[in-house]
Structures are given as C-alpha cells and as structure tokens.
C-alpha cells in the first residue's frame, strides 16, 4: 500500500518535472535558435551515443539557417522566418523561427498574436495564437500549454526594434507520423506550408 502511494507521488512529481523540462528545453532551444533532439529519455550509460546523436544533428540545421522552411509577411515591416519544425519522441512539434523588423521604425506586436483564449491571454504577450493546420485530415493544432495555462512559446516580446531579429519558439502537439506537411498560421501574418522533420 505504501509503495503504490509512493509511485503515485513519483508519477505526479515526474509529470510536473516533464512540463518544466519541456518549458526549459523550449526556452533554451528558442534562445539558441536551433532545435536539438530530446535525448533525456536515454539511459545514462548511453551518454557516448547521446553526444554523437547531438553532433550528427548539426548538419540539417546548417541547411535550415541558409534556407528557411517558410517566410511569413506581417504588419509594420515584420517578417517571420520559420527555421525548423522538429518532431520529437515525446509527441511534440517544436517550431523555431526568427522575427525580423525590416522597417526603419520600431514595431509594436499586435495582441492578436497571443490569441483569444482567456487562459493564454492572462499570461501576457506571447505567440499563443499560432496554429498548425493539417488540411488533408481537416485538423487544427493549437500551441501547447503547461499545467498553469502558460503557452509553450516565447513570451514577453512586446516590440521589435528597427532592424532587429528576435528568436522565437512554439510547441504544438505532433500530427500523426504520416503527416509531413502542415500550414503554419500566425494572426496578422500570411500563412505558409511547412515541412515537419523527425
């Protein structure tokens, strides 16, 4: 009886840890501007192969920086370049992008980017309004959120200075493995098809 209570406690703890980890990994990935694989579920003994698999992922990312998956035009001279859409083993798709202000003046981001869901809106400015649309299966995927309702995206970007580029990330539930292409949509920006890798 004691052991089942312990395992329940452990499971709840692990679940909280995973959400925090997903958030931390997402933030780190957003800052670095590249989408590494999630190798945390591998056993410690496999540390040599973990480092190998991380280094082998450098080559596709080099290609991605040269050629973005998509370029979306927005208001006030803003452009969103989608650099990668990486599926991971945990059932997520992480999108890494760069938001650039090509105009000669500072651009204030629209509150529409946050979306209109009350739970996400109360957490401040974010990219929680982004969606992935699988047109063949007629399904729409919304940005994931943690147990406190915070969207798993870059938050707190209010404006982009003239000529500046800001790295951002967004995490979505992964479409079925057979789905390799979806439409990426962000309010006030044009939409574009993107290919999911992994």
TrEMBL record:
It comes from the Bacteria. Residues 36-72 are annotated as: Disordered. This is Secreted protein. Residues 46-59 have a biased composition (Low complexity).
